[in-house]
Structures are given as structure tokens and as C-alpha cells.
Amino acid sequence: MTTHSPDRHVFARSAPVRLWEDGFALDPYPYYEALRAQGPVGWGELAPGVPAYVVTCRRAALDLLHDTDTFSHDPRPWESTVADDSPVLGMMRWRPNTLFADGAAHARYRTSLIDTFDRIEPHDLRARVHRAVRVLVGRFGPEGRADLVGEFTRPLMALVFNDLFGLPDSHGDRLHVALGKMMEGGAEAAEGEAEFGGYVLELIAAKTERRGEDLPSRLLDHPAGLTAEEVTWQVFLTLGAGYEPTANLVSNALSRILGNPRYYSTLTSGARPVTDAVTEVLHHETPLANYGIHYARRPVSFHGAWIRAAVPVVVSYGALALQDDPQGSRGPAVAEPQAPGRRHPRDASHLSWSAGPHACPVRQHTLLIATEAIERLTQWLPDLEPVLPRERLTWRPGPFHRSLTSLPVRFSPRSPDQPGVAS
Ligand code: HEM
Q1: pTM of the entire predicted model
Q2: What is the mean pLDDT of residues 157-184?
Q3: Domain boundaries of the chain, sorted by first residue
Q4: Closest atom, ligand 1, to C-alpha of 73
Q5: Distance from the CA of 265 to the center of ligand 1, in angstroms?
Q6: b/e for 20-30, b at 16 or more Cβ within 10 A?
Q7: Does domain 17-410 fall into CATH 1.10.630.10?
């Protein structure tokens, strides 16, 4: 860990950069630049009156993510310093699950989740994604127009998770409304959190009574011996951590693909794998823009900043992209298509899955879901056309995500039962 004298208090004269402002959703890059101007660790605000150290440098991020002796994932000392109705509590409040645990407790929770996900065969997951795409195209395909965020990516994730959790499709709408409110971290965040909690509690009560071939049942029977309450919180986390970021990964990738006619033509002819588009998002517009929240166990000097205990230290995955590529990350520009089979020039560099003990444990599943969803959609609807240029698309407020409000498209009306289309 790089350390400096505690006297070098970088924030003495810096106003916190407000990551909760509408302007941040509109264009986050000036905010990231302002943070980076303060040094490897900047001073930001996640909500009015909720300050945080924000790490914007790769070296400092890696040091933070790997230094479990100095930094903890347990937010409880911080929680006592914030108002009960703070809009960020939905995303940051302690729960007995892998994200908020350290050491042996973390290993126990994480192993149970990894083992459970490992039992999902790729062909099974692929089939579930295809089924969900078919259901959704069945709903909006005949219309010839759709909002791909509201009618495709978000309900898609609700359908896939419902399926994996052994719930009927009818529960999907309830899920994506609740999670949307919670992730925005705004006035409706507490309501969203309560609705989401109710959804998960009902699910676990049903599975406790009667097991099925689904993820919660496998977690309940895992040799780690999790209690029903602990399983509830692993499922709560899995849905919270997986649903929104993956929906946003797919939306952000689709918006880039559709915003670039050259890109789209090579994609539909099969010349350019969808994986490239998804990789581009992970580099330039990562869906979980600011997270990886740690708390110093004691006051510590860290990369030029004096870090107080019980104050969140956030990794800005979005600002790290700016460090990797000061021009390419900015604004709406979309990279030119790569030649088939060529590696993306920055393939190895992004930290969008985080690093260290809490790095995303389900990367491969996520990539499969995202790429299959886009490939299947573009097979069903090969002439998708954006209604708005990419620079006129709007983004949902909130410090944590990079999330489109909507992605309106038009296309030749299709029905999944029509002959000659994907099946
Ligand atoms: C099926 C979809 C997904 C599921 C089920 C999922 C699940 C999880 C879980 C359970 C954790 C906590 C791991 C731990 O604390 O040990 C985690 C961490 C993480 N995930 Fe994922 N995830 C999904 C998709 C994504 C996507 C699309 C992204 C963004 C590209 C992402 C980025 C991350 C990051 C950055 C972390 C670390 C968070 C931190 O350090 O606080 N995940 N994920």
C-alpha cells in the first residue's frame, strides 16, 4: 500500500463532488475529472450530507480491494452516522450476506453462492435466456416499436431470475419496479427496498416449505448450513447485485450497437461478436459505476489521503475507465468495429468486475446472459433502428449506476410464431 504523511490532507480545501446530482447522470465525466484532479483519492458525496472517499486511480483501487487488514466491507460503524431515511441505505446497509462480510464469514457465504451458480449448466442458462427473449418479443414484437430498457432488458432480467429462483413469470414486473426504485437512491428508495424485501421473503418462505430445482432450494440445502434468514439475504443480494447491473450492461451495449450503423451491420452479419460490444461497455460505460465500498478499520494514510474510519471509501469503476482511456470514455462516441477475431485493444485493463476477495463471482454467467440476450434479440428483430440519436438518450440519476432511462427503437413488426424467424 502506498502511504504518505497524514499531514497531506487532500480534502482540506476541496468541496465534495456531488455524485447524486442530476448533472452527474447527464454527463458523469466532468465529475470524474473533478475527482481525479484531487489525486488518487477524491472527496465526493453519495447523497446530500453523505460524504465518501472516491478512488479514481487503478493502483489505489487495487491496493484498497486487496488490503483486507486495513479495510473492511462491514458498513455498520458508518450506518450509525447516517439518517435512517438516507436514500443510499438501500444499497449500503449491512445485511448478513457475502457483500458485507469479511474473513471466514465472507468465505462461507461466497462459497455457497459460487457452488450454487456453478451448478447451472451453460446450455440450461442459454435456454432460459432464449425463452425469456421469446416471451418478451412475443409481447412487443407485433407493435413494430418498443423501449428496449422498459420492455426488454429490465423485464428480461426479471424473467431470467424468476426462472432461476423457481418463480412464475407473473412475479417479474413486481421485481423490476422495486429494484429500479432502490437502485436510483432517490426519494422512493426506501419504498423500493421494502417491496424488494417482501418479494424475497415470500420466495424463501415458499422454498423452505417446498424445495424445487432452483437456486434458493440449493442454497437452503448447501453444506455450509445457511439458515433460512441467511439464504434470504444471499438471494436478496444476488437479485440486487445481478438484476440491475446486467440489465444495464445489455442496454448500454445495445445502445452502442444501434448507435453505430457500421457496427450493427457487421453484428447482424455475424462478423463481429456481440462480446466485443459488451467488452466495450465494460471499458467505457460500466453499469456499476461507483461501488466496491470499503471502510477503514482505523484512521489511515492512503495514497495521499488521510482516511477516517467509518467513512465509505468507494471505487469509481467509471472514473477508472477515464484513466485508462481519457478520450475514448467520454461522451457518446462509439469505437469503430474491430476486424473479426481481433482482440479489443484494452481487453485486459478494465476493473468492471472489481478485484480481490469480493470480485464479482458470476462473470461468466453474466457474460453469457448478456451476449445471448443481444444475439437472440437481433436474430428476432434484424432491422432494429434507434428512434433517437445516442447523444439524446437520457440516464437515470443515482451515484452507483450508469443506467439508461429508455432506449426507444422501431423495427418491422414480428411475432415469434412467424415462420422464418429465430426459434
Ligand atoms: C447474474 C448477474 C450478477 C450476479 C448474480 C452478481 C452477483 C454478485 C455478487 C453476489 C457479488 C458480491 C461478491 C462478494 O462480495 O463476495 C458481486 C460483486 C460484484 N459484481 Fe456482480 N453480479 C452480477 C452481474 C454483475 C455485472 C453486470 C457487473 C458489472 C459489470 C457486476 C459487477 C460487480 C462488482 C464490481 C462487484 C464487486 C462489488 C464490491 O466490491 O463491492 N456484477 N456480484
Answers
A1: 0.90
A2: 81
A3: 17-410
A4: 41
A5: 32
A6: beeebbeebbe
A7: yes
